[in-house]
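User: My advisor, Dr. K., asked me to get a structural model of this assembly before our group meeting. I'm new to this, so sorry if the format is off. These are the inputs:
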Amino acid sequence: MAASTVDLPARGSFPEVKLAKKAPKKADALLVVAFKGEEGLELPASSLLGGSATRALYESLTAVGATGKANEVTRVPAPAKAGVASVIAVGLGDADELDDETMRRAAGTAARALKGVGTVATSLGDFGLAAAVEGIILGGYNHRGIRSSELADKEAPATVVFADDKSKAKEFEAAKIGAESVLLARDLVNTPSNFLYPESYAEFLRAQGEEVGLDVEILDEKELKKQGFGGILSVGQGSARPPRLVRLTWAPRKAKRSVALVGKGITFDTGGISLKPGSGMWDMISDMGGSAAMAASIIAAAKLELPVKVTATLPLAENMPSGSATRPGDVITHYGGKTSEVLNTDAEGRLVLADAIARASEDNPDYLLETATLTGAQMVALGDRTAGIMGSDELRDHLAELGRSVGENAWAMPLLEEHDEQLKSGNADMRNIHVKREGGMEFAGTYLKQFVGEGIEWAHIDIAGPSMNGGSAWGYTPKQATGVPVRTIIAALTEISQQKKKK
Ligand code: BES
Ligand code: MN
Ligand code: ZN
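Assistant: The format is fine. Below is the predicted structure of the whole assembly, which you can bring to the meeting.
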């Protein structure tokens, strides 16, 4: 059965976070920090526990071997008169080396131990409020999947109360909005493709977008044809589920700059006629991760009321093999008129992105940021936790740095001059592959560059690896969808919104 057109079948659960002037009287547990000093465990003083309770806690923790090393989670019965049943201590390592990422990872690791605990009062915020809030929400996320039975009560997400004064409310709220946006992207990516296909995905984005005050425009297959979106149509034509182009716009009055966001939205990638091997093909439910990240980011921009104009252009299509599918050797005409020879139908992401980038460029934005699960070559080059960023020199380098600063690892990659030659086709303006293994990520970057409008600062972020975590949960990164690079994009939009004068 198909899902309703608007609801996702399953949203993941996650801890509720609250900011309160005082710790709640009726908490079930305390979550405190521990450091690793030269002589072992160190417990900083906190408003949650008095001096004698802290000393008693120290005894309990050392008795069970706690050292305070980063990401160590230790749960012990609470000292008498603490007013709670248990205390959970999370290690932050060396106090002198504490940074945001250490806090996020430790808070995320702790969050996984909080399921079923109830209400938890924490002093984590004293050592980095925004990072702690992000870590708790991101690490405590639990994707239930689609199951016939409800989760048992003991797995219910905790409520985590940060005791801090009102002056921190804005920082707290922004961190919460950012982290919850990451979860939206994760939910979309984790949703199977029989539920999330171009039409249902577009309608979901319409509902979500309108709710936060975005303008929403959806082009269906007829409109796509009328306007000449040959790349999107070509990739979608093998599927019984027709493609869509979603345009979301956040246009606040005070905006001085404009940013175009573009994200790959292949709701399932079989490879098409250039069919992928069956083993592991199921991971291709995540091939819309770029579009999910950009949708989540523009929704965050609206919730944060960032004074920057943002337009997200999201091409959605399902890449299937069938009697109506595109053949290797076909030549297609993109939005704007450029043509591509499709030598490999599995290099489909760039075909839909070409149309979307050309359309987004028409608005003449100051910046064009695009992200996609584009190439297996990205993982060969950089592994599965580090995104590859290509594009205009300065923006590329800055985004890579920004990504690293928020804990979404990224590395600047060059575009290669030899690829200009290898792009040439005997039958069209260009071909979609260079028929080589070497430099596959960079070739895709050069291909996309052909569609970026003159004078627009642009960046392409290949997230084939980092969008999904095939291993077990670590830090604040759960199994499966990670929501990368939502926090990088929000950070970039925030920075751009603060730029004053026109260049
Ligand atoms: N969606 C894939 C890339 C991908 C692979 C993402 C694995 C995440 C995990 C993309 O559409 C693709 O198939 N790329 C081809 C390009 C090739 C045919 C030039 C690839 O990387 O093999
Ligand atoms: Mn593909
Ligand atoms: Zn793909």
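One thing worth pointing out at the meeting: Residues 177-498 form a domain with the Aminopeptidase fold (CATH 3.40.630.10).

User: Perfect, thanks a lot.
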